Amino acid sequence: MKRSLALFALAAVLAACSYMPGSMGGWTTLIDGDKGLDNFTRDGDANWRAEDGAIVADKGKGGFLVSKQSFGDYRLRVEFMPDHNANSGIYMRCSVSSGLTDKLCHEANIFDQRPDQTFATGGIVHLGKVMQPVKAGGKWNVYDITAQGRRITVVLNGVKTTEIDNAQFLSGPLALQFGNLPNNVPGGAIRFRKVQIRPL
To answer: Measured between alpha carbons, how far is 156 from 153 in angstroms, rounded to an integer?
Structure first.
């Protein structure tokens, strides 16, 4: 009985700590459900908050959650749900920690309604054209991204959507974006419920 209670207590402690920086099986969990906001700093005025088992933003002129840590070579796994009209993205190896743009980081796009579909959802903006179009709006999706040396490979829901060979940014923080549509038309909500990273 005492052994069972001890195992139960250990499991509860591990579950409670799973969203905190720290390795488990080589993976660091930055967001776990509605936990993990304290692993990021805010850039911009998006209304990031914990809600209904996820980290959510749906108002503001645009903004980011920027990781407090920098990362070089890694595998990144992100579970996200965008509204159909969301403009979001996963910013990687950013050269700055504030004032982020898609020209200061590599951005794996989340933007189903992007006017130029060349770099829409699944692409890396400016650099990696979408090889297999995938619409992400209105459902949970999984980005599986590998950044190793000059090469970044993006897999969305099990489909390889783009790959680049570029040495412009090789290390830096990662960031999660909430953005508006062109001409400052309000964009839809973006939700993140799992963000995990494993160094390579």
So the answer is: 10
Note the pLDDT of residue 9.
45
For the domain 2-199, what is the CATH superfamily, name and number? Exo-inulinase; domain 1 (2.60.120.560)
Of the candidates 173, 134, 177, 184, which has an alpha carbon nearest to the alpha carbon of residue 154? 134
Q: pTM here?
A: 0.87
pLDDT averaged over every residue in the chain:
91
List phi, psi (to 5°) of 5.
Answer: -65, -40
Q: Phi and psi for 125 in degrees, rounded to 5?
A: -55, 135
How far apart are the C-alpha atoms of 121 and 98, rounded to whole Å? 24
> DSSP 3-state assignment of 118?
helix
Per-residue confidence (pLDDT) for residue 184, from 0 to 100: 87
Whether 39 contacts 154, CB under 8 Å: no
Over range 1-14, report the average pLDDT.
Answer: 45
**Ramachandran quadrant class, 44 (left: phi over 0; alpha: psi -120 to 50; beta: rest):** left
